[in-house]
Amino acid sequence: MERIKALLQAHVERAYAPYSGFPVVALVEAEGEAFLGVNVENAAFPLSQCAERNAVAAMVLAGKRRIDRVHVYSPKGPIPPCGGCRQVLMEFGGPEVEVVLHGPEGEEVTTLGALLPMAFRL
């Protein structure tokens, strides 16, 4: 867990968060590989992209479709994914998927099911 946290911390400066001042980096573990994403804000806030969704996009681009575990880090954290990200993560995972919320002082472990108990699923 410390190795992953160090990796996340090493990439948090790559986040583009000039408006909120809230940098986030996410790592999605999928089928034996790891995919990183950072948040990328935009002056037109609805156009911003969350770190979790960017990590999922990298995973999909690599041809993976099943999330095994999610890690989220912010120097302001530990913080959970937003509601939209929870739904996107659930699309490629299930309620049992572990979510590790990292912050400078430690981490919290939960599941997608606990974060989004009434997820929309087809």
TrEMBL record:
CMP/dCMP-type deaminase domain sequence ranges: 1-122
Catalytic class of the enzyme: hydrolase
Domain of life: Bacteria
EC number: 3.5.4.5
Cofactor(s) this protein requires: Zn(2+)
Pfam families reported in the protein's UniProt record: dCMP_cyt_deam_1
InterPro entries in UniProt: APOBEC/CMP_deaminase_Zn-bd, CMP_dCMP_dom, Cyt/Deoxycyt_deaminase, Cyt_deam_tetra, Cytidine_deaminase-like
Role of this protein: This enzyme scavenges exogenous and endogenous cytidine and 2'-deoxycytidine for UMP synthesis.
Protein name: Cytidine deaminase
Species whose genome carries this gene: Thermus aquaticus (strain ATCC BAA-2747 / Y51MC23)
